[in-house]
Amino acid sequence: MPAVTVDDITVLPRVRRPDPGLAPARPVRSITTAPTGFEGEGFPVRRAFAGVAAEVLDPFIMMDQMGEVEYAPGEPKGTPWHPHRGFETVTYIMDGSFIHQDSHGGGGSITNGDTQWMTAGSGLLHIETPPESLVMSGGLFHGLQLWVNLPREAKMSAPKYQDLRASEVLLLSSDDGGALLRVIAGDVGGHTGPGSTHTPMAMVHASISSGAQMTIPWRQDFNALVYVLSGTGTVGEEKRPITTGQLAVFGPGATLTVNADPTQESRLGGLDVVILGGEPIRQPIAWHGPFVMNTQRELVQAFEDFQAGRLGTVPPDGIQPFRA
Where would I find the Pirin C-terminal domain in this sequence (predicted)? Predict the structure, then answer.
């Protein structure tokens, strides 16, 4: 699965394991299982946050695990042109490729460890679709899309785009070398990832070797979520079992602990998880479809602005979904 890795993890900077006497461990509050569904033109997703209260997720709105799926030729699908307003989308591709474009000039290809971070702000149009080569050949596809809320004062800010290449992701080792951490955004133990965020937050993709334990510091003013991309293991000092497609929500504290089971599926080298945390915004949420605002009136205005073309138009050179 992981596209970004190293041959020798021992050469990486290490995240020091906190002193348990000084840094209280976060307890596990809940574990939920993501239901499966389809997005866009029909690509399979797991709805990672389904069934979890919004106040626990804050500042995060939604996260879809796209795949992991082995497409046959002609099967890969994406999304048509669609609007966004009021939040940020973070698209992280672990395997395969997506091409994307927006009405404010952002766009390109994201593949094998790249991240596309788009601040929709006051609004834009956007498309994400597999390239013609992937549609024709088929192949492995696996990614995530996370929606991060914007505070009221930033919801109508100018749209912004960050193209984070796989080579820019900060690679770290756990204290004993048993886990590889890819820091996409935020700070982990004094090490900061490349993503620039409106809302203070952290996003980490960790690969934990079979039988290894990872305990890392985590900001006490952030919430803490661990989602399993693949594999089996346990979370928290209480060692609650967790597996592919499940989300653990942690309570207050200063450290997170995740363990990989000694025995995994033969195709897996361990446990892969995404770790998320952010500073809660604590503002009302009015969310419908592609718009995340504070009030119902603002939602209505977003739809009216979209219908009137005020969120932008498809560029003359706008890409379109390729169909075999």
Answer: 204-311
